[in-house]
Design brief:
Layout: H1 2-19, H2 24-28, H3 34-48, H4 55-81, H5 84-89, H6 92-102, E1 117-122, E2 127-132, H7 139-146, E3 155-160, E4 167-172, H8 184-197, H9 206-213, H10 218-222, H11 226-239, E5 246-252, E6 255-263, H12 267-280, E7 284-293, E8 296-304, H13 309-318, H14 324-332, H15 338-358, H16 362-371, H17 373-385, H18 393-404, H19 409-424, E9 427-428, E10 438-442, E11 456-462, E12 465-471, E13 476-483, H20 488-496, H21 498-512, E14 519-527, H22 542-563, E15 573-576, H23 582-594, H24 600-603, H25 614-617, H26 619-634, E16 644-649, H27 655-667, E17 671-678, E18 681-684, H28 691-699, E19 717-720, H29 726-731, H30 733-736, E20 741-744, E21 761-763, E22 769-772, E23 776-777
Helix pairs in contact: 1-3, 1-4, 7-12, 8-9, 8-11, 14-15, 15-16, 15-17, 15-19, 17-18, 17-19, 18-19, 22-23, 26-27, 27-28
């Protein structure tokens, strides 16, 4: 019977809530509650009849009695203190769950004067609710982080009781909008009335209001005051269709509404950043609401306290583009300003750039800058003072003198590289508040290393990516390549050769373009997809997270490149390369048109539905095939009849190698592919890799790491770049595999060079170099 009592209590509460009873005792006298009352009375009688020496039963009786006393006070308090919006927007099933959870925080003698929290989940409406006795700074941000792996966050409502002793933070993870008991016209009516009071013309016209309402959920319209809804709509229209973020603060009488509209962002990640910013300013969250309109996140936070609201809004607009490397020190400052955010962004870019051009480890550079923080900050501040690369000579001399005073030679080398970039940078986009990444135009003469200097070098540092764009001539075209290592070790290896690889690719493209007006160029975007993914991607697999990061990185890179190009005489001309998809091309061109590019359609080649897609038609590979056939004929092999072996340095998802694999199946039926290496890894088999499996990878635009290992021969090998020494074995595959033809495809111009050419030769007699692993080399 005691168990029956425990089960009956929640049913009594549900009826109390439905009838708005002033107390549980009053409820028990209602006729329609008699079954529950009888059940409760029988259970109570059973408790009273317990044997005196049964301590366990006595304890249960005390718990049940305390629970009843708690609810006697809690139910009427809850009905009176929670705001009307709570009862209008939260389903009844969730309200009852909240009541039951609140009992764990409520003390009959002290109310909610207990610093604790309770978590309640509702399967009915896909919500998770935290009940806390107050929302101290940082509480909400911590709760967002705690929900990692819950799913994709689609909404947030924060409700505070009128006496401010209880906060309910309701997180919605249900992708479908909950049913509303209101009709669309009921939800829209107050907004139309407000618009008519504002004149009813233009922005306030009924047609404009209805058009926006069609994009919004009914709950969003119902739960938002008309004046607030109009302000949010204005911000939405300012950034809709772009990647920019809009924010504003409306402050009065010690409180303020922070409103942020952010398109194309992950809700949980962005919400967490905004709440961390609020906590850094020591602001208390009283109310918060989050909804989505089309692809825009609309976040409203009511805070109490004081702050520089201009800085709060400005930093909110930058949060989307800042990674943890900048955010951790930014929030640690307390009350971060817009200048603080920009300074950290510039410092991080200089740190990354120095590591790339030195070709050393990131730890070495980071440790040096931590040891000489003042000098690193001075370099960043100097760059901020130099809008187009012409700074104060005195500042430069003082900074150089500070570097000379460093006694450790290894540290001095790092600091000198940071200062060199800060003092020779020709142009930046730091003045653009809506920049998606930081772009620095470097002085090419400082990067020549004795070789022909490029005409232009742009470095872009963004959230979880950085990139180089190298042009060998003022007017130059070349592909954009995405490199996405899977492990921290592979990422470090790619980072150490990032600039050298991009420069070598541009030089190779220059040789290809020697007979056409456009010079050669190349862009390599290095994406960091290592470590944990964003919370919203939990359970979807690492591949989905990498794909998301790739799309964001290539878009932000191209936009930052436009920042430093549209106002100059040097417009970039791009093309697709590894991991760039048609969606990227379409978006880059559309963004260029929106931003006023004089010929946006010329910015990037291979646009879907326009011109000739050289990857689709295999233009480059057809030329390579002609040279392969001719070279084989010189050594007595008829490629269309005889058997021969091919080794490819370039993947099935690439332009040259992918199309060459298709040509081989079409024209060279007896050819065997004995080795393939690309950014993802390598596969080799002296008997020949399965042709149908290679064709599958080509059609799926998949790398060689996706090769089905079950189709390898007895002597075949498949390794991924992130598998132990897989990267090193990949880079030396062509030094092990015997073939008749080696094709270093366009993506790997440094396959054989002066430093490793001897390794390409087989061992000869008496340790003398022997014959090459492949007597014919045809560059793609």
């Amino acid at each position: 019977m005691l168990l029956q009592t425990a089960r009956a209590a929640p049913r009594v509460l549900r009826t109390a809530h439905r009838h708005k009873a002033s107390s549980v005792a009053a409820l028990l006298h209602r006729d329609d509650a008699q079954p529950l009352a009888s059940s409760a009375r029988r259970a109570a009688s059973s408790v009273a009849a317990l044997h005196d020496d049964d301590e366990a039963q006595k304890t249960i009786a005390k718990v049940v009695s305390r629970y009843a006393r708690t609810q006697e006070q809690l139910v009427p308090w809850f009905l009176e203190q929670m705001p009307r919006s709570y009862f209008a927007l939260v389903p009844e099933s969730s309200q009852l769950a909240h009541l039951q959870a609140a009992a764990g925080l409520f003390d009959p003698a002290r109310g909610f004067d207990v610093l604790d929290e309770v978590r309640a989940a509702s399967a009915d409406d896909g919500t998770v609710t935290y009940l806390t006795s107050g929302n101290a700074p940082g509480t909400l941000a911590r709760q967002v982080r705690t929900l990692a792996g819950q799913g994709e966050l689609t909404g947030l409502k924060v409700f505070t009781s009128r006496d401010e002793t209880l906060c309910l933070n309701v997180f919605n993870f249900d992708t479908a909008a909950p049913d509303s008991c209101f009709e669309a016209e009921d939800a829209l009516a107050p907004h139309l009335q407000y618009a008519r009071a504002k004149g009813g013309e233009g922005f306030w016209s009924e047609a404009a209001v209805r058009a926006h309402a069609d994009k919004c959920s009914l709950d969003y319209q119902l739960g938002t005051r008309p004046a607030h809804w109009a302000r949010q709509r204005a911000l939405f229209e300012r950034v809709a269709g772009s990647d920019a973020v809009a924010a504003r603060v409306d402050a009065s009488n010690g409180s303020a509404w922070l409103t942020v509209v952010a398109p194309n962002t992950l809700p949980a990640s962005f919400l967490h950043k905004v709440l961390r910013l609020v906590a850094a300013h020591s602001l208390d969250v009283k109310l918060a609401e989050m909804d989505t309109v089309e692809d825009c996140l609309i976040l409203r936070v009511l805070v109490t306290g004081s702050a520089n609201w201009t800085d709060v809004a400005a930093v909110s607009e930058r949060l989307k583009w800042l990674g943890e490397t900048a955010l951790v020190p930014l929030f640690a400052k307390g009350a971060p300003t817009a200048r603080d955010a920009t300074l950290l962004e510039v410092r991080y870019a200089l740190e990354t750039l120095a590591q790339r051009t030195l070709g050393c480890s990131r730890d070495r550079v980071a440790k040096t800058l931590r040891s000489h923080g003042d000098l690193a900050d001075a370099a960043a501040k100097l760059l901020l003072k130099r809008p187009v690369g012409r700074g104060d000579g005195g500042d430069v001399k003082e900074l150089l003198a500070s570097v000379d005073a460093v006694t450790d030679e290894a540290e001095k080398e790092v600091l000198a590289e940071v200062v060199r970039h800060a003092t020779t940078c020709l142009q930046t986009n730091v003045g653009r508040a809506d920049r998606q990444a930081l772009a620095l135009v470097l002085d090419p003469s400082t990067l020549s290393d004795g070789a022909e200097p490029p005409a232009r070098v742009v470095f872009v540092a963004g959230r979880r990516f950085d990139a180089f764009h190298v042009s060998m001539r003022p007017v130059a075209r070349g592909g954009v390549r995405l490199v996405t290592p899977k492990t921290p070790e592979a990422l470090a290896h790619a980072a150490s050769r990032h600039y050298d690889e991009c420069r070598d690719l541009a030089q190779a493209q220059q040789l290809k373009n020697k007979d056409i007006p456009e010079g050669g160029a190349k862009a390599v975007v290095l994406v960091d997809a290592t470590g944990h993914g964003d919370d919203a991607w939990a359970g979807r697999g690492r591949g989905a997270f990498r794909e998301y990061l790739n799309r964001k990185a290539v878009s932000a890179f191209a936009d930052a490149l436009l920042d430093v190009s549209l106002e100059s005489e040097t417009l970039p001309y791009l093309g697709p390369d590894e991991q760039v998809v048609p969606q990227d091309i379409t978006r880059i061109v559309a963004n260029a048109a929106r931003r006023g590019h004089p010929r946006p359609e010329a910015l990037m080649s291979s646009k879907p539905g326009a011109g000739i897609n050289h990857k689709e038609f295999g233009v480059t590979s057809e030329g390579v095939a002609v040279f392969v056939e001719r070279a084989l004929r010189e050594v007595g092999i008829d490629a269309r009849k005889d058997a021969f072996r091919v080794s490819l340095v370039g993947g099935p998802d690439g332009d040259v190698a992918g199309n060459l694999l298709k040509i081989m199946q079409r024209d060279w039926p007896s050819a065997r592919v004995v080795g393939v290496a690309d950014g993802s890894g390598y596969a080799e088999d002296p008997e020949g890799l399965d042709g149908n499996e290679l064709r599958r990878l080509v059609e799926a635009s998949a790398p060689i790491a996706a090769f089905d290992s079950k189709l390898l021969g007895n002597r075949g090998t498949l390794r991924t770049a992130d598998d132990g020494d897989g990267a090193a074995l990949r880079d030396t595959m062509h030094f092990r595999v015997d073939a008749d033809v080696l094709v270093p495809c366009g993506g790997r111009p440094g396959t054989i060079h002066a430093g490793n050419a001897r390794e390409f030769l087989k061992p000869g007699d008496d340790a003398a170099p022997g014959a090459p692993r492949a007597p014919i080399i045809v560059e793609g």
